[in-house]
Every structure is written in C-alpha cells, then in structure tokens.
Amino acid sequence: MEKMVIISAPWVVPVAVPVIRDGSIVVTGGRILDIGRRDDIIGKYPQSSEIKYPCVLMPGLVNAHMHLELTHLAGGFCSLPAQKFTEWIDALIARRAQNKESRDEIVAAFTTALKEQYNSGVALIGDIGNEQYDELDGVAGGLQPKIVRMLEFIGPNKKGCQAAMTNLLHLDENTAATGHAPYSTAPDLLKEIKKRCRRLQHIFSIHACECADEREFLQTGTGCFRDFLEKKSSWDGIFPFSETGFSGTIQYFAHLGLLDDTTLLVHCVHVSAKELLVIKDSGAKICLCPGSNGFLANGHAPVELMVDLGLLPALGSDSAASNQSLDIWREMQILAVNHTRIAPADILAMATMGGAQALLHETEYGSLAVGRSAKFIHVSSPDLRICNDSAHLMDILVANGKPAEIEWVSSVYD
Q: Rounded distance, CA 79 to CA 36, Å?
C-alpha cells in the first residue's frame, strides 16, 4: 500500500473551488487523494503522517506561451511605441540571421530560463520554436517544468509553403507542429498543419489578433504586412485576402476550419465581441501575453469581455525578445493594473487552470483536486503571513508579484 502524507497550511488555494482556510491535502503515489479542511482530513486519515507549512499551498503556475530558443536575445530590443510591429519582426529576423551565439550558448540561455521558471513555481510551459532542441527534454536533476513543445512553420509564398509541406510530411509524429500567424503561414499550409494536429491529437497554437494592422491585411491584402512580405520578396498572391475581404483573423481561421477545442489563439488583443463568441462556440482557447503586448505597443486585450462571456484565458510571457521579463507573476500584476474590474481569483485561475486547459493538461496541472499531480507549491511572504481573509489573500497573490519564498512541496515526500 502506498504511503499517505498529509500536507497542511493556513491557506490552501485549489483554484477550481474556493480557498480553504486551515486546509490539508492528502498525497499518495504522487497524486492528490483528498483535499479539505484540516480537521476533517486529520479525522479521515488518523494514521497518516502530517507535514505543516506556514503559509499558502497552491498549484504550480502555467506559462502557456514562450519562445525559449529566443532567450539568448534578452535585452537586445527596445519597446516599440514609435515603430510598426513589422519593424520589430524585421529586426528580430536580422538579429537571428547574424548567428552571434553558438548553439551551446543558446542552449545555456534557455536552460537557465527553464530553471528560473521552475524556481518561480511554473509547472508547465507551452513552448514554440523554429528549430529542434533535444536539450529541452531535460536539465540536470530534472528540476524544470514539463514542456509542451511545438515546432513552428512559416511559409508565406508558394515556394515557402511547398518546402514547409515537405518538411511537415517527414516530421516525426511525436513532434507537434503549428503555424506562426495569419500573415506568415499560407492558408493551405495552415489547413495541413491543423489536419495533422487533429490526427495526432496535438495542440494547434497560433499568434492571432496581435496587432491592429493584422485586420487590414486580412480585409484588403494591404498595409504593413503586405509591404513587409514584398520587401522580403515573399509576396506572390498565395493569400486570398483581397478577393474575399475577411473581417478579421477569427473569421479567416473559421473559414479555414482551424477553430476547435484543441486550438490555442495567442494574444487576441484586437478581437471583437462577435469574434469572441465565435471562439467560445468553437471551444478554442485564448492565451494572453500582456507584458509582450505592452512592450510592442499592441494595446490591451478585452479581458473583461472575455471573462463576462465565460472564457478563461491562459497567460504567457512570450519571448525575451518581446518582453522585459518571463515572469508569470509579473504577467498577473500587469493584468491586475490594466484591468481593475477583473477579480484577482480570475487572474490567478488564468495563470494556473486556464493554462493547463489550453495545453490539454488540465487532468494533471492547474488546480488542486483529487487525482491531480501532487506537484504543487508553497509560497510565503511577509504580507501573506499576516493575511486575515481569502479575498485579501488572492489580491496579494496577484498584485504583489513573485512571493519572497517559493518551494516545491513534492520535495518533502519524493
């Protein structure tokens, strides 16, 4: 029989259900067996040993959108209030083409980032990249978040699309593939990638509605994205926008048959109420990246409307090339400042349960519940230790940034 351990603390934050004051979690075999008030749990399991923590037990966070292979570019880009979004893309492409860093340096940078994510309480990451890195499968000691890795395909013209199709055909089925964005991945390629995702039950994660210029491109085939593709000699008429005049990205994706409950739409800043209803009806998920959107001057997502419609977005930090920090605690802070009507409990749910659902790992991560992984965290700070009620507790967890102390509870019984 597996040994049972009771983990107790003044506060237990399950996320999916209300906060439990003086709560306990029963762990056995690496899984949560039970959760509830400490008095009730002690009565049900009188023979089990107990480990007490002084502050808050909660699920590990989820960073649902990262570009780990860009971590070595941290500090190399300025925010863009005076530039077009395509100018930042152009600068990123040029910087990567310079190959200033060796592969070992790139690996060292994202290995350090993974350790930092783990030490800040992140249990699960959705990572998008253009190259294969076997090194992402693990670091020394295994002390890193679980990674849902997706290989990103770009093909904005016939030649690029054909090359990508060939690469996709020969891609190992254990490797997930996804498209980049509506302006950089041609429609036939997007449909083929989504078809593969459905067949292999992979997530289809794609940048969507990130900047205002995207809508002009989809409606008329003009604007900065058209200019960008022409400058790169990548415009050959493969996109049908000028003939069909799509109202926006969501209608375009719906037209291509890309929207379902395994689709993750990243950013969704410039999205209307009508488009959000389409997203909701399709079952597709949303990932917000408020730090990146601020850095690139792309605006604020209509988060209040999303919540009002019953949508629970995920949170992501995006890349070190488009954000000053990869800290999900900071992403929660930014949301709290920019969207004061959103309840702190909802923001914390985005950083945990919303991310787990978006990455199709909600039966393992994102909440403290029976059957979930027993890999959760204890957090503490001076403000948390003197907290008197659950509402104040949630406000501190969301608005105060990364707690002073973060510890993986699994270390006490592994």
A: 46
Query: Domains in the chain, please, with CATH?
Result: 4-59+367-412 (2.30.40.10), 61-358 (3.20.20.140)
Provide DSSP, 319-365: -TTS-S---HHHHHHHHHHH-TTS-HHHHHHIIIIIHHHHTT-TTTS
Q: Are 62 and 357 in contact (CB under 8 A)?
A: no
Q: What is the Cα–Cα distance from 248 to 130, expressed in whole angstroms?
A: 26
In whole angstroms, give the CA distance from residue 89 to residue 206. Answer: 16
Mean pLDDT value across the chain: 93
Indicate the burial class of 221 (C-beta count within 10 angstroms; 0-12, 13-18, 19 or more): buried
Q: Is the pTM of this model over 0.85?
A: yes
258-305 per-position pLDDT tens digit: 999 999 999 999 999 999 999 999 999 999 999 999 999 999 999 999
- The order of strands in the sheet holding 204-208 is 204-208, 263-267, 285-288, 314-315
Q: Is the pLDDT of residue 52 over 90?
A: yes
What span, in angstroms and rounded, lies between the C-alpha atoms of 409 and 370? Answer: 16
Q: State the pairing for strand pair 31-37/20-28.
A: antiparallel
Beta bridge partners of 286: 265
pLDDT tens track for 89-145: 998 998 888 888 899 999 999 999 999 999 999 999 999 999 988 888 765 455 789
- The pLDDT assigned to 243 comes to 63
Q: Mind listing the pLDDT tens digit for each residue in 12-29? A: 999 999 999 999 999 999
Task: Provide long-range contacts, Cβ within 8 A and 24+ apart, for 22-30.
Answer: 23/57, 24/50, 25/57, 25/368, 25/374, 25/376, 27/374, 27/413, 28/2, 28/3, 28/4, 29/2, 30/373, 30/374, 30/375, 30/410
Three-state DSSP at 227 gives helix
pLDDT at 140: 47
Q: How far apart are CA 28 and CA 101, in angstroms?
A: 45
Q: Give the 3-state secondary structure of residue 202.
A: coil
Q: How many residues does the chain have?
A: 414
Strand partners, 222: none
Cα 120 off chain centre by: 15
Q: Beta-carbon neighbour count of residue 282 at 10 Å?
A: 17
